[in-house]
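thread: overnight batch results

M.L. [08:02]
morning all. the overnight job finished for the chain we discussed friday. pasting input first so we're all looking at the same thing
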Amino acid sequence: MCGMLTGSHTLAAVEETEIFNRFVETMTSQYQFDGAKIKQLFKSVDIKQNIIKAMQRPAEGMPWYKYRKIFMQNARIKDGVKFWQENDKVLTEVEAEYGVPAEIIVAIIGVETLYGANTGHHRVIDALATLGFTYPKRSRFFLSELENFLLLCREEKMDPLQPTGSYAGAMGIPQFMPSSYRAYAADFEEDGKRDIWTNPSDAIASVANYFVKHHWRKGDAITFPVIAQGESFQQGLSKGLKPDKSWAELQSLSINSEDDIDVKETVKLLEYKQEKNNDLWVGLHNFYVITRYNHSPLYAMAVYQLSEAVYKQKQLLLAEKKSTEKAEMTQTAK
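M.L. [08:03]
and the structure it wrote out:
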């Protein structure tokens, strides 16, 4: 592949390989795109080596105690409260309509893009083409997303060369992949546009809709910390993320919790690596739903803990405000 060096990033043109020609054939035969126009479009697309490098070192490969520090920072918690305050009306309405807690929506957006401050600088088409055509490990997934991206650009009347996102092609404030955008993006303000790049209201409603479509259970708990006696808890650990054991089964392995968990509740035992002693948690159905956004127990726990921290900080500030107002009223009365 003949590339050129620009700064520290190697760029190369999309070549008409067998996999590329199959992709063009799919878009023309299945979706009635003009093959010549697609080939012309991809002459303006760059294969970017730094995207491949980024895919090979995901944050989810870190141990929990390092991963947690990325998100559980005072600045991110403070900014979460600010984002909530700025979008309080929408968050209240969306929570009432969809049943997804405002703090979970805020935390998702906080983990994904620092509340919209960092939505990614790669052109989406560059990211998806790079990973679809030159990253065999996940080529099938990214070619499917590239299909969806071209379809959504046609549906939403967008220029495919304009939208930007992450190195993996995730877009906007909530970092939706193209297939997720097409399936779950919401037009909260009913203005005919599903703008997840610059409209926080659409982004908030889109996150809630995503969870509802993945069977979020309104009012249900998400996760609980647990304590194990001895080493028999190891028998309760298993692959995957879906709840697969009853709480009664885990209790029989000398696992207990200070929280009141129904013995019939189906849960997932999860172990989180700390610098010394590891933490044990059980994830419930709604925890599993969070992992549908990003298939990582680290990610879901970061969302949960950030949501708790933002909620507590917001409540604290609200209590302080009421206390100050009460003091001022008392002073005025005197």
